Amino acid sequence: MFVIIGWVLALACIFGVYIVHGGNMGVILKALPFEFTTIFGSAFGAFLANNQMKVTKKTLAGLGQCFKGSKFSKARYMELLALMYDILQKARKEGLMSIEKDVEDPHNSAIFQKYPVVGNDHHVVEFITDYLRMMVSGNLNAHEIESLMDSEIETHHQEEHAAVAAIGRLAGGLPAFGIVAAVLGVVNTMGSVGQPPAVLGGMIGSALVGTFLGILLAYGFVEPLGGLLEQKVEDAGKEFQCIKTTLLASMQGYAPQVAIEFGRKVLFSDDRPTFSELEQHVKKK
Prior knowledge:
The protein is mainly alpha-helical. Helix content is 82%, strand content 0%.
């Protein structure tokens, strides 16, 4: 929602001031379809040539996420920590082997299905169950599991940032393609030097629209989407950090209620539930 509001505000300020100062929108509107096709079409072609198909798909999916609100909220984190508490509490009371069925088949686990917000998130469930499985096996110590967690989180971070980098490269190329469109317009104008000054002025104005449009698309539209997607990637990474910290605290011998407090402290302050909020939520569940 705020993406659309930001775009509308930017366009209103740019073109509003232009019109107030006596600008002729007819020149821009006349050249806009041709310049847009030249700039955005060539930039998108370069984008396809510059990225593997898996990165292209991830980028397009990420752009779709930019128009949706963030799923990482205080309520989601309270669900996640309550889920972690229940699992660790069961393991502490009944032994690690008691959670083996929950780990092997989380979709039919009463604990995971008790928290559908995170219990039905494939990536979160897989991350939790993979390391709980290692804890149940008892073959790895906390330092070894922490190293594995760090490697997996870093891999996830790199995968998600590939889309952010692709959008950044696209934004960086748009002004250059705007210049290409402007140069072509100038070349076309130079081939019509025998035309009256009014006609030549219109052709030069149309050519300059290309430079304007390339810069506007880059810094007014594409680059902000890249920045927003990067923030969403950081939010997703923070959730994995929360799970990692909670599990490691449990492996080091801390009680479940203390372990989830370790995980709570990792979260960003805007989305972090207070100690009392989390305690009440856990008791309620």
